[in-house]
Amino acid sequence: MTAERRKPQTGKQLLLRFAEGSDLRDRLDQIAKANGRSTTAEVLLRLEASLQAEEKTGLSFVQTIKAATVKAASDDPDMEARISELEKAVKALQKARS
User: How many CA atoms lie within 13 A of 73 on its CB side?
Assistant: First the structure.
């Protein structure tokens, strides 16, 4: 049995670091495997979907999350604090990107 050869990769690369102690990478790996995709393909698919949703609705990612969690926030007093932390993280990413 011969090993399947991969095609040379093309396109721009992005080095992405995950916060110390974060399980996000492991979660993405598991989800990608369950969906039959590479982790890279899973991340790109999710990023593209969030950008398309933002363009379609005119709402930012954070606004979309807020709109989707209005009911949950009323049922969970910690939801507002978690949303606030998410907003801070998104702003930090946007600042780092620019």
Answer: 11
H helices of 1-98, where?
24-34, 39-57, 61-68, 70-75, 79-97
Exposed e or buried b per residue across 21-36, where buried means at least 16 C-beta atoms within 10 angstroms of its C-beta: eeeeeeebeeebeeee
| Cβ-contact 50, 61 below 8 angstroms | yes
Give this prediction's pTM. 0.56
Q: What residue type is 20 in one-letter code?
A: E
Q: Where are the domains of the chain?
A: 24-58, 59-98
Q: Give ∠ CA 45-66-71 in degrees, rounded to 5.
A: 115
So what's the pLDDT on residue 27? Answer: 94
Residue 73, pLDDT > 70, answer no
pLDDT at 69 over 80: no
